[in-house]
Predict the 3D structure of the following.
Amino acid sequence: MQASATPEERLVALGLKLPVAAQALGNYEPWCIVGNLLMISGQFPWIDGELQFKGRLGRELDLSEGYAACRLAMLNAIAQLKCAVGELRHIRRIYRLEGILNVAEGFHDHPKALDGASDLALQVFGDRGRHTRMIFSNPVMPMDSFCLVYAFAEVDLSALEAK
């Protein structure tokens, strides 16, 4: 793929379509811009409002399912980014991803599952998708979801102000 391709063109080349950005499930904002920093609230692995991956990695889910869940949650995070800035080219950089994963006791390969989110960020944003990362594990997740993925990005304020 050409380095000059837009994130939207890269999504098409990957055969992916962005979902509609999910609404908040409570009294919070799905995204917020402070200065030139865009923060995305945790995103579930949804398809059309239906949670796709439930349970614990290493118990109900295997590593390939965990990877797919994190990738899908990241696709939903990218939908929120697009909702916030209009066009993904206005994202200067994804600088941090965080994942909260539902992991069975004794399972230790969960960083490989979160690679599903990291790999998609790199595929869609190229070098602008290189990020820091943190993984948390939680023994009880909302709706028994396997994961939540959070994204933090720097935005091009001049492009947003021109809108």
The chain has a mean pLDDT of 94. The longest strand covers residues 91-101. Residues 7-162 form a domain with the 60s Ribosomal Protein L30; Chain: A; fold (CATH 3.30.1330.40).
